[in-house]
Design a protein that fits this description.
2 copies of one chain form a homodimer. The first copy, chain A, is α/β, with parallel strands linked by helices. The first copy, chain A, has helices spanning 19-28, 40-48, 68-76, 111-116, 118-124, 134-144, 155-160, 212-221, 255-267, and strands at 9-13, 33-37, 54-61, 65-66, 80-88, 92-95, 106-109, 127-130, 149-153, 164-167, 177-184, 198-205, 227-235, 238-249, 271-278. Chain A is elongated.
Chain lengths: 284, 284
């Protein structure tokens, strides 16, 4: 996380106060500049065109799962993963300044955020109102000027929309993390053999034969390389074909990893190295 | 799909006209009754309490990825998977009767549906308005009575809200499928050795040791059992621990599958068989 933050501009999907923007500040540091984008593809395009130095995109949430669309975009744009960050998603209850918790009658947020706070909202006995996104619901509470309304959103949204935080950690399950990947045009700093906290992300497919996946994974197991993620994704309309998303511990330029990737290349018609980067450990 | 549909009541999450309801009719047949539920957990609870014969829940979308929350609920409720169905997601452009395509100025829908139709909506040159869900946006267009407004939703929503279909297949990528699982209190019909189109879904975890996953998958590869899905899910706060979701071809009561599961049980501290059921092949 010891990145040079000078002249960094980080594209993210969503509006100011979104969880992606919070992740950008936590990962890159609070002095960087951020650029909100309407779509994930806009994030990729801006980085690709050199209009921003980096993009930060969510790829999986511990409750909601992987975001395949962002893997598709990684295959379509020739960018590099240069870092990862696990954001602890903490939904804050935000209201107008001066409002007390007992004044709140309705809570606005994205349906997923409402669902994640279901038990706590039930205890409060408030009406739940579904909105398009979390940051937008914070903006709405400010714009309405309604002292009986609150929003579930990030603590960052409280700053952006000048709301007060009535309560933090409204989520019922504290084990709610979203994994973000930092993207750039150039790969991450060159391989340092003294550093053993690298991770590499790859995408590949396999010809459908019994045991093909087992053979593919053997290229890592036989070299004592640990997998930190594996996910098969059926290619729709081709029920026997799959893409595989795999992350493993190690840098693609380390000798054992390089050999494993060469070996995998013998088996996989498509193999794309998305980047090697420093691993982020989730704190409990 | 030759299910006895008499007296079937199918719980689904969403409101009438939702894609889940469309999947229920396509999978169980158009004569069954459906029961809308506010949350996924309501679906599980109603089936568990015997208030409905079945539940139908989405577990993965080819663009959006897996819905981990529904796997969590499968671990918390002691229900059985009794079937699977891949729904081709086709977003229809719905408007009030008599309206022509050239009259449309704004299109309402869930942000994900709008994103999936981005290129086609751009060609139409319409304003995009994000709503909480697809069926709700169809209801909104009916309630507004606005002849310049349209919704992106399922063809089923057209029937429910008495709208006309201006255009089908508005999605830019036709390879858009959602996989649904049918749940019931009792397991699916007993194993028939003559039938070889079974699939079984399991969840397990592993003690973190190098090569643990490789050993776990060997129990299938060594018995020529094909995997049709594999997904690792990190257990947040425990960066070295994972749950694995695996589907394989075969019935848990077939001898080779039974032996593989016994073998896997030697390696996995937690192993849960979610059910064996008839496989559904996606048509192109």
């Amino acid at each position: 996380m010891a990145l040079d933050v000078e002249n960094k501009l980080i594209a993210f999907q969503g509006e100011h106060g979104a969880y992606s923007e919070l992740a950008a500040y936590e990962y890159f540091g609070s002095v960087v500049n951020t650029l909100p984008c309407q779509t994930f593809e806009d994030v990729f395009r801006l980085v690709d065109e050199g209009q921003t130095s980096h993009g930060l995109i969510p790829v999986e949430n511990s409750l909601a799962g992987s975001i395949h669309r962002n893997y598709d975009l990684m295959l379509r744009y020739d960018l590099n993963i240069v870092g990862e960050y696990f954001l602890r998603v903490s939904h804050c209850l935000l209201a107008l300044p001066g409002v007390r918790l007992e004044d709140i009658r309705s809570v606005h947020s994205h349906p997923q955020a409402l669902a994640q706070c279901e038990a706590n909202l039930f205890k409060l006995g408030v009406e739940q109102v579904a909105e398009v996104d979390t940051a937008g619901s914070a903006r709405l509470v400010r714009d309405l000027g309604d002292k009986s309304a609150a929003a579930l959103a990030s603590k960052r949204a409280a700053d952006v929309y000048e709301l007060q935080i009535l309560s933090e950690h409204m989520e019922d399950d504290p084990a709610n993390f979203t994994r973000f990947l930092a993207l750039a045009k150039e790969p991450y700093a060159a391989y340092d053999p003294e550093q053993n906290e690298y991770k590499t992300s790859i995408v590949f497919n396999l010809v459908n034969k019994p045991g093909a996946l087992f053979k593919a994974l053997s290229v890592f197991a036989l070299r004592d390389i640990d997998l930190t993620k594996i996910e098969s994704r059926p290619i729709p309309g081709q029920p026997w074909d799959y893409m595989f998303y795999v992350d493993f511990g190690g840098h693609a330029q380390a000798l054992n990893c390089k050999r494993a990737l060469d070996h995998l290349g013998e088996l996989a018609p498509i193999l794309r190295n998305l980047g090697s980067y420093t691993r982020h450990y989730i704190q409990k």
